[in-house]
Amino acid sequence: MLNGFKDFILRGNVVSMAIGLAVGSAFTAVVTGFSKAFITPLIGLATGSVGDFSEAKFTVGKTIFPYGLAISAAIAFVITAAVLYFCIVVPMTKFQERFAKEEAQDAKSEKRDCPACFSEIPAIATRCAHCTGTVEPLAPAALPTDDLAKTGVPAQR
């Protein structure tokens, strides 16, 4: 029982996730501090409120609604999401697209229909396995010849 737990904890995904959460919470603290120190006072100056905008509130009866805190949290969220998207997601997507290996299509896996019995047969077949009818080979433009050479399939007769 403890060996299974040890294997789970030491698995690479769990450790990476824990590190990501720790770095993410530290990053959120930095963005929240930046938002409280610079952004909300600038909004307070722009709206004409005195002091920190996060202290803005209104009262209905005896209930106090601190709407400045909600706006400050929303600003911190938008800044965090924008930085994560533009500094992590976009570069990682471009990195993955650049280094993604294009998988060569296997000529044997391409399929087409037999004109006699309409069953599915390999595209490089010259005879149907179901009705044993002779099938006209596909035109060379329809089958990529470089893929045929890679797979070791002999040329059409």
Plain-language structure description:
The protein is mainly α and 157 residues long. Helix content is 54%, strand content 8%. The protein contains four helices and four strands. It has helices at 2-10, 12-47, 67-99, 145-151, and strands at 58-60, 63-65, 111-113, 120-122. The chain has a two-stranded antiparallel sheet with strand order 1-2. The protein has a two-stranded antiparallel sheet with strand order 3-4. β3 (111-113) and β4 form a beta hairpin. α2 (12-47) crosses α3 (67-99). The protein is elongated. The mean pLDDT is 77.
Estimated radius of gyration: 32 Å
Taking strands numbered 1, 2, ... along the chain, how are they ordered across the largest sheet?
Answer: 1-2
Mean pLDDT: 77
Biggest beta sheet summary: 2 strands, antiparallel
- Following the backbone from N to C, one meets helices and strands in this order, namely HHEEHEEH
Helices and strands in order, then pairings?
Blueprint: H1 2-10, H2 12-47, E1 58-60, E2 63-65, H3 67-99, E3 111-113, E4 120-122, H4 145-151
Antiparallel strand pairs: 1-2, 3-4
Short description:
With 157 residues, the protein is mainly α. It contains 4 helices and 4 strands. It is elongated.
Keywords:
mainly alpha; two-stranded antiparallel sheet
